[in-house]
Amino acid sequence: MFKVNCLNKIANVGLDLFTDNYQMVDNFNDANAVLVRSSSIHDLELPHSLDAIARAGAGVNNIPLDKCAERGIVVFNTPGANANGVKEMVIAALIIAARNIVGGVNWVNSCGADPEVAKLVEKNKSKFSGTEVKGKKLGVIGLGATGVLVANAANKLEMEVYGYDPFISVDAAWKLSKFIKHTKALEEIFRNCDFITVHIPLSDSTKGMFNKDTFAIMKDGVKILNFSRDTLVIDEDMIEALKSGKVHRYVTDFPNPNVCGVEGVITIPHLGASTSESEDNCAVMAVRQIMDYMENGNIKNSVNFPNCDMGICTQAGRIAIFHKNIPNMISQFTATFARENINITDMTNKSKGQWAYSLLDIVPPSTDEIVKSLRAIDGVLKVRVIK
Ligand SMILES: NC(=O)c1ccc[n+]([C@@H]2O[C@H](COP(=O)([O-])OP(=O)(O)OC[C@H]3O[C@@H](n4cnc5c(N)ncnc54)[C@H](O)[C@@H]3O)[C@@H](O)[C@H]2O)c1
Ligand SMILES: O=C(O)CC[C@@H](O)C(=O)O
């Protein structure tokens, strides 16, 4: 029986996939597998029982990836599962940034039930006029699952779209419309675009990408959309840029005390992926990945360990070994099994950066003694007996 804990609300269509072999538990400390959306796991003690964490979403900056890797805890995410939800919100944000819809709606609401409201509207509406997006230049930073959809949709709105992603995947490149102009230097986006939208993960290298130096080279009156993470932007520099008119509007999905209520900032309560479709897609993908890992040791869409697929185990035993990506590991594993006259019928070894994963089908199954010997090998992080 595997114990599963949800740190956030996860859509039922996903949770309903769990069979009788899974038990939902309220306590994180009892879990073998955890499902999470945006809750932070950084300050939680990781229990010894924990084998896997699935982020029902894209961003994994709320999870201590290295700490998990060192402990042999596989962290999954659900690439692309909420990208359409975010894309639709970004298109709304583009229009919200171009037209003073938020200002206008707030003003009308402030008129209360004034019997003259219709007259007032016609008298005052010129205060809330805006521009159209057609023909304007949009820079899309990050051409992954979301960025590609945003770029293609904006192209259909007849915007001139520039895309920047030095690490673009082959898959994403195939999906990108031929009308998107490929930019090799981020500076080109900053210098030329009327609207800039960012769709990249938060990392040490992307943190603070929008700062006083980058604002300085942007066009006056640029509109910036942030549906990625708040700390990609240095708030103090953004507030200065808004005051000076360098930035006209900043639409962000990440309200924080620095930017809430600041003139020119439009804050949305992290709703990019909050659609029933995105929530269902993420939950189903996350649960399927967890189940395949817990039952078969297969890894798909992990952010800290390599993909590995040996299908359903039909042999007497299957064992998973997490280890450092260093020489001479495999020979020590095979020698351990050989000593006990255990036959390896199938085997996969994959690595990702400094970490590696070996999955072995064996006949007959493993014993406690063998597991103990494997764990004692220098460089082994964790051994999981799957069968
Ligand atoms: N607001 C929301 O609800 C919401 C929903 C989904 C994702 N997100 C955020 O958006 C981010 C992107 O989501 P996604 O689904 O498109 O992820 P993704 O992994 O499919 O795409 C990210 C892209 O960014 C590119 N990239 C990485 N570093 C870069 C850099 N320095 N410059 C340019 N490109 C860079 C990668 O090559 C990749 O193509 C997530 O990491 C998450 O933080 C927010
Ligand atoms: O779960 C959410 O609502 C937000 C998801 C989003 O920020 C992500 O990175 O996928």
UniProtKB/TrEMBL annotation:
PROSITE patterns: ACT, D_2_HYDROXYACID_DH_2. SUPFAM superfamilies: ACT-like, Formate/glycerate dehydrogenase catalytic domain-like, NAD(P)-binding Rossmann-fold domains. InterPro entries: ACT-like_dom_sf (IPR045865), ACT_dom (IPR002912), D-isomer_2_OHA_DH_cat_dom (IPR006139), D-isomer_DH_CS (IPR029753), D-isomer_DH_NAD-bd (IPR006140), NAD(P)-bd_dom_sf (IPR036291). It holds the Pfam family 2-Hacid_dh_C. Residues 318-387 form the ACT domain. Pathway: Amino-acid biosynthesis; L-serine biosynthesis; L-serine from 3-phospho-D-glycerate: step 1/3. Catalyzes the reversible oxidation of 3-phospho-D-glycerate to 3-phosphonooxypyruvate, the first step of the phosphorylated L-serine biosynthesis pathway. Also catalyzes the reversible oxidation of 2-hydroxyglutarate to 2-oxoglutarate. This is D-3-phosphoglycerate dehydrogenase.
